[in-house]
Amino acid sequence: MLRVYNTLSRRLEVFSPLNPGTVLMYVCGPTVYDYTHVGHARTYVAFDVIKRYLRLKGYDVVHVQNITDIDDKIIRRSREEGRSWREVADEFTRDYLEVLEKLNIKVDLHPRVTEHISEIIEFIGLLLEKGYAYVAPSGSVYFDVDSYGDYGRLSGRLSKEEWGQEQEYVKEKKHPYDFALWKAAKPGEPWWESPWGPGRPGWHIECSVMATLYLGERFDIHGGGSDLIFPHHENERAQSEAALGVKPWVRYWLHTGMLTVEGQKMSKSLGNIVPLKDLFREWQPEVVRLWLATVHYRSVVNFSDASLHQAGRNYERLANAVQALQEVLRKEEYSFKLSDEGRKLLREMARLRRGFYEAMDEDFNVSKAFSYVYELTSIVFSRILEKPEAAVALRALALLEEFNKVLGVLDKFFSRAPPLPLDQLIELIVEVRKRLRKAREYELADWIREQLLKQGVRLYDRGEETVWRLL
Ligand code: AMP
Ligand code: ZN
Fold first, then answer.
1. Which of 92, 108, 356, 426 lies in disulfide reach of 32, CB 3.0 to 4.6 Å?
2. Cβ–ligand 1 contact at 223 (below 6 Å)
3. What is the pLDDT of residues 31-56, one digit of tens each?
4. Element (H, E) at 251
């Protein structure tokens, strides 16, 4: 039984999605104003592992991860570089998508803010209509935090003193902690038309709107880095529950621990980022992925050469184990006979498999789960390869393939041969038949035509040429 740690309740809860069999998951993605760095990857890999495990357990998972393509930082960078905000956003969106591909992360949907302006305006309209928001003299719209009774519970900031204040437009707000839903355009900034005048969305509103649009008014998992709990997720929660009249909007809030460099969060503003495009020159993406996939999603991860070296060694061991087992299976005859040692090994593998699932069921305890994976590789090298038995090797290989469904680093060893190119094969047979006819081997040529017909391929002879159709 899977249990997950819900940031909102601060305890482990039994995982039970809204609709049995389906998990709806929204993860806060990047603001695309710079290269994707290792800190981002920490969060993206963690949620990919979570998704893969849920799929392994049989759930259909819908994974939405937004792209913030308009924001103060994007505008600032576009000014600094004398190009449009869209060029900046497009460049770093490309980088982000390339990184995900290299890390073997497949997100189902990547909605962008600027493609959802009309839905955002509608959502803000709803908040105004219900009395949870107000329009300020500048034309900006703010969420009235006091009007929503449950503010601060997600982050545990229960007193107003802890809510701080948004830096901008403070004077026109009712309360310093009210946050912008719509920002009135300042000269030279990109803007969209709205009932409150030209402007652009505030940051938080996009996630409420896009999650609702693609997942519905309530969904199962909302994820992101723990840096987003306050104010971003606190605000998302407040405005969504207020506008939609649902509670809880999100069933499980999951947050990743930060990736740090010498104790400090890796972030652009601290100037300590390592872009993945650079890291991939030194380390294979599989190694980076393995490193990040095997630390618990809630732990703080420190960026260090030593941990990457360790991941490099682990990756090599896994890859070698798979290849050695495949080698055994190419050579060994399949046999139903099992030695006593073989029997023992099969039982041990059953124990490792159980251990893996039990660990993952404890709030996705990957580090514990992967201790079983490494135990398996040890068994492969120390015992299975010693005196190979096909049935045992086959089981070990299948188990590694199963574990890799979550790990996602060994795909190239397990990818099946591509499907046969049917068209080319038929063309080849047709060509052989043509040559036979030329050599007056009509009997054989006719036999080929009959055989193909039995397989559902009809040949039409047009003089020397032959065309074919699938029946
Ligand atoms: P950003 O583009 O900074 O909004 O970040 C995109 C996603 O990456 C969010 O879910 C962040 O919480 C996460 N993230 C950013 N920096 C880090 C970090 N140093 N460690 C872990 N996650 C991070
Ligand atoms: Zn968000």
1. 92
2. no
3. 999 999 999 999 999 999 999 999 99
4. strand 250-256
For the chain, list the domains and their CATH numbers.
Answer: 3-302 (3.40.50.620), 307-412 (1.20.120.640), 421-470 (no CATH)
What 3-state DSSP class applies to 179? strand
β-bridge partners, 60:
22
Q: Is the CB of 50 under 6 A from ligand 1?
A: no
The per-residue b/e assignment along 423-446, b for 16 or more CB within 10 angstroms, e otherwise, is eeebeebbeebeebbeeeeeeebe
- Pseudo-torsion of CA 105, 109, 112, 117, nearest 10°? -160
Distance 276 CA to ligand 2 centre (A): 22
Measure the CA–CA gap between 68 and 216, rounded to whole angstroms: 20
SS3 166: coil
Q: What is the pLDDT of residues 72-100, one digit of tens each?
A: 999 999 999 999 999 999 999 999 999 99
Q: Is 266 in the pocket of ligand 1 (CB under 6 A)?
A: yes
> Residue 179 C-alpha to ligand 2 middle, in angstroms?
14
Query: Residue 26 CA to chain centroid, in angstroms?
Result: 10
Pocket of ligand 1 contains residue 267 by CB under 6 Å? yes
Pairing of strands 141-143, 264-265: unpaired
8 Å CB contact between 201 and 98: no
